[in-house]
Amino acid sequence: MANQTPLKRLMAGKKGLTDLHIPTITEDAEDVVGMQGRIRLQKDDRIGPSQWMDKQRSSLQAYEYLCHIGEAKEWIEDCLQIEIDPITQLEESMRNGIILARLAGWFAPDVVRKIFTGSRLQFRHIDNINSFFEALNVVHLPKIFWFETTDLYDKKNIPKAIYCIHALSHLLARRNMAPTIKNLVGTLHFADDVLRATQRTLDNSGVKMPPFSALQVDLGQQLGADAAIMPYDSPTTPDLIKEGEESDPEEDLFPSVDREQAYWQDPNNLQKLVRCQAIVRNWLTRREYEEKRAMQQSTFFLSRLSGVQAHARGVLMRKNLEEKQFIYDQSEEWVTKLQAVVRRYLCRNRYHNTLAHYHANMDKVICVQSFMKNKLAGNAYRKLTTDNNPSLGTVKNFVHLLNDNDLDFDCDIALHEMRQQVVELIRENTHMDSLVSSLDSQIGLLLRNAITIDEVVKTTSAFKKKQQHRRMSELAASSSRTNPFSLTGIDKESARRLKLYQQMLYVLQTEPYYLARLLSMTGRHHIGEYASIKVIEQTVMTLFGYGSNKREEYLLINLCKSCIDEEMKHVKSTREFMCSNYTFMKLVVQTNRGAKERRFFRKLLRPLIQNIVDDEYLDLENDPVAIYHKKINDEESATGRSTLRSRAATCQDALKDKSVCDTFISHLRQLREMAGHFLDAILATVDDVPYGMRILARKLRLTLEEAFPNEPRKSILGVIGNFIYYRYLNPAIIAPEQYDIVDAIVLPVQRKNLAEIAKVLHKIASGEPFKEDGIFLAPLNDFVLQSTELFTEWLLELTNVEEPASYFDINELDDHTTTQKPSVIISPRELFHLHYVLDQNLADIDPEGGVLTQLIKNLGPSPYDPTLELPEALFSVNLSAPSDPLSEDASSRQRQVLTDAKRLVIYIIRIQSGANLKDILAAPVGEDEERLWLELKKSEFSTQGRTSEAVTAKRRYVKLGQNDPALDLESVNFYALKVITERLLHYLIRLELLADDGVYQSIINLIARDITGKNARRQQRDHELSQLRQTLAHLKEKQGYLLEKKDQYEGYLSSSMEVMATKRGKRPRYMMPFTRQYFHVRGLKKQGLEPKFGSFKYTAKQLFERGILVELDGIQPKHYDKISIILSMDHVNIITIEGSYSGWSITSVQVDLRYEELLQIQFEGQQTMKVLDGMVKVNVNLLIYLINKKFYA
Length: 1193
Prior knowledge:
actin filament binding, GTPase activator activity, mainly alpha, RasGAP_dom, calmodulin binding, Ras GTPase-activating-like protein IQGAP1, Actin-binding Protein, T-fimbrin, domain 1, 1193 residues, 6 domains
């Protein structure tokens, strides 16, 4: 029956077709001809397509499947007494397993421990489905009815999950553990689009529909032979469709009754019936017994039985306790009296014994108390220093250590004032330096104009007009031309570009991470197509002057340290670092060729290498075959006859020769002895090793330990030993003549000996014995491993060195204190190529968009072009910082707010206690806290006994705002103090100076660090005071130097202009009689107004034709001959321009111009300017040319 198609089972029930409704099938259905009750499939006129029969069959399958889902839904709701999602949404809602887990908890509560319902716990929803499986296992549902987890969770076969729920319902109903599932086929109605969508989903999934109609039969077969009986029809779930093609029961009703009565009247049949009934009753009894026994042995029954037993034990135990409690209640009074008497006796006896013991051992008690106090204090302080987040109580116990004395306050005040003085002096010197640079530019412009005047004077009269015309044309166009390769021109654009290049080189020197990223990119060849790695390396060494002086060596060391940090980002193991050849290592090699390193190598290696070079008989060959061949050559040379030995000998054959073996052993002994001498010399030179190599070795060790914390220390020291020896010492040993260690020529045999010694030393430094690559030197492995221990100790001592800033005694202010600016000697090709590389890789070199990005953007594109030949001549570039390093910005103000906040927090925790600072700030303030705050203010802010009122002012006043007056804490109560402190803490959290941990633990940690580091802070403060005093002295020296230089420049400028003007004034001027200039000068003489250095009168037309006058505001050029313009100079450097025109509102307009202002305008590249109240526009270059010609030539 399970294999019959649904169309063969469309038999109506007893009520005919009245209760049957299947969309598109039972609507207006007719019976099959000759077969009453059988539905005839017919074409629905409302359906257009010709495949109407297939569609009706498909709709029937989807309809039955939806009805089975509805049956499972109602059964689950009956069990759980809750309402779940509708039928069309039940498939999706069941995927998370929540409904199944709740159902499992209903019929097997001991199995389900937790149901995961959260939407964010999707990865735990599978646990809900697993709980349902455990419950199925408890009730012994056969595995054939189970579904897979992916069938439901991934929607691979949801009909199988619905089939499992149906099987479970029948199983539980057979055991009277759950209601019977209903048959809803024919009672539910679904829309056509729902049926089509369901059928489409079933078709797409490709799964086979489980046999729901044969479920009870299959379940019975799986449970046993007793379950093979045909399932009964529940009165609450009448069948809608009957299986098979049966005839009408009314057709042969009466004949069948007659036959049955005749059959049962036969006594033999009755006897057989009795025997069958007995057999059946016996079989039913046994089956019932077996079911009960199986139920009692099942996990489900045992779990329920355990619960009943627990309840029973609980009832008995409670009854027993109630009886005992009743007895105790009745005896409570006299038991209490008895206990009190006994306790009183025992307490008095114990107290007297203890007191007597203390009196007898009073000295020991005092010692123990002192020991415990010290122990507890030590533990508390250790906890304060080691804990990352010390508790508030621990900090409060030691907060008294932060009470500074008057000396501390005086030093803090002096340090603050000295910093202010340094900042002011740096700003003054910077401003003075800019003035000196401006004066230098003016002197350059003056000299250039003076040369122009001399050229005009030297011009002969024949070519005078022609040369003047050419010069004026050049001046008119000079400001519009800018040479992109020129950085020394006396114009604003050249000065601007030169200043930007100066700042760029300074930033690259002082901010090493920029060049470190660039060098790291060159090592990986990620710098662009036209960039040259060789030029970059040469430019970097040029930028740092090959570390020739203290400042450049300090900066070069910082660059190498930054390179180590940058390269370590790409290193995955210590072995990879050892085998790689990084760009910064080339810098180390280049640095090693300096004079200082040569002196070190000469002192260390000269005696050892000289002995090897002088010993012409020394041979450290360790290849047995080579020794064998040498023996043959020596024998043939001595005897003059061919040897009888075989020339094709292997290593084993050569060692079988006794003379070869003896020579081989002798060479190994000599090699070990020589290597030992070299090693002893190296180990004795810790203090003589140049500082640069020591600090780089220290940096490399710390970086490797941080990057590879699980790496053995021996392995890390092997990497450092390989770096120190292979990159630093080895080149000097194998090529001593290149480092001026020896003067003689090193022969090939001697160089081979040095190479063999260097090979042994390399193995000692790296801590690796000889293997396949040096099989002949394997006998020296014991010596190598023993020497490695000594070399490791030497490395540890070598890396114990102070930081560069302390060693070189250099700080960030040194460049601002020297009278001579730091400079770099570089070629234009190197400079422009560096600019080009930085511009092309700016996103990788400065991803944060810092100061270098701003400088490169201001410079614009680089003039570098690989196809052009740029100048190779070197020129000096004075470097300058782009900003003030100690400017009073917001950061200093923020640090002061943080200091004040810590001080206020200390006041608060000294008065009030709590679990954390947040609880203290939120706690109410009582009279006791206000009284303690008043006492604290008297002790903190009192001036009695103080040596300085500044100390009291520093403690008493707090500055909250930049422009607000300082707050007097004397006038603040304790509640207001807490409010102010909390606002300061919120402000610091917004500035990210404190972490937002919810309880203000970060400021407690800062206070703890202040307590533990107070002594170090005092030492640092004293060091800063010493440095600032020295810095102030140097700044004052530089200020005097700049003032003197400024006075010299100003004096030179004014004296030069006065000498030029005076010479021109003494020189007699010839004037054509009866000209405009003639009458102008004569009129001035009559009035006694003739200027000291001359006066010249022109018409606007004359100046316009010469190009000096560009335009007149509101006047046509045809009227220019009616406008008079007079240029005169009565005082040096002050030129008076006067214009008169009858058409102006003011008949005469006059203006005084300083010659320095005109030179500054010319320097800035401004071609024109307006004079005479903006009515006249003139050409600046030609105006200066005219002034020079008339007043200074």
